[in-house]
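Mods, move this if it's the wrong board.
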Amino acid sequence: ADGSAVDLVFVTLVETRLQLCDWVEDHLAKKSSQLDVIRYQNACREGVKHCETNTYSLLQGVASAYNGNLKSILAFSSKCFRDCHVGKLFGRLTEVKVAGVRVPNPKKSFVGRTVEELGHGIRFCMAGGHFS
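Not the wrong board. Structure tokens:
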């Protein structure tokens, strides 16, 4: 630690029902932090984007209401890093079958994002997961 302000933070929240959108908006409105860019992921929402059918999407929503959800927050300084748009990391595990259909468990997922350091172009992939 060199005593300077933090310029990159990644946090994974497992089995949560917290509404991250409200927290992110409040933080960014303060404008007092060096962490001026915040990206968050929600395993349930990511799962819906990857659903093949509306029924599977509905099961995903029911599962997250029952099980909780895996979410992550990536906060960084735009003076030091930029979003690397090579794609978000996402995957989920299924746990049980209901009427012959595998039901996803949103808290048993992995999520992540990549940022690129501005000075040397070094990329950092931040990943979080929960499998138990």
